[in-house]
Amino acid sequence: MNFEISMFNKKQKGFTLIELLVVIAIIGLLAGIVLVSLGGARDSARNARIQASISQFRSAAELFANDATGNAYTGICADASVSGLRADLSAQSGAASVCFDAATDYCISSGLVGGANICVSDAGVVGSIVCAAATTACL
Does residue 51 contact residue 57 with C-beta atoms inside 8 Å? Predict the structure, then answer.
């Protein structure tokens, strides 16, 4: 008889299945909220990297023109010094960058995450437009 009484008075240690499921559900809900909020930050980071690559292209183009080419931009789009920048632009934006060059001017544009464009020419960086082949300028 003493054995039966001590068995019923003994408290079990541990968690029930329902308690564990509630905790797992709460953790899953919090993880989902964090992942959704990080999506916008990831897009902003990609756009910042695209804009930095466009600015680096402008610097490389000026160095190219001032080097041994006689202050001309002809061939900058195919030059090996900017091929890495163009590859990075294509990888980050998901589309190939557009680049045109001529003797006195150049233009390169790339898409941003979210549908907008960014363009740089010998005149400067301008947002939300693309390069035009006929004028090698941002339009």
Answer: no
Residue-level pLDDT at 17: 93
Tell whether the model's pLDDT for residue 48 goes beyond 70. Answer: yes
Tell me the two tokens of residue 60: 């490389």
pLDDT for the residue numbered 32: 92
Could you say which DSSP state residue 95 is in? S
User: Which parts of 1-139 fold into alpha helices (H)?
Assistant: 2-9, 17-66, 80-93
Which secondary-structure segment (H or E) carries 110? strand 106-111
pLDDT the model gives residue 2 = 54
- With contact defined as beta carbons under 8 Å apart, do 105 and 77 qualify? no
pLDDT at 131 over 60: yes
Q: What are phi and psi of 116, to 5 degrees?
A: -80, 170
Q: What is the DSSP string of 10-46?
A: PPPPS--HHHHHHHHHHHHHHHHHHHHHHHHHHHHHH
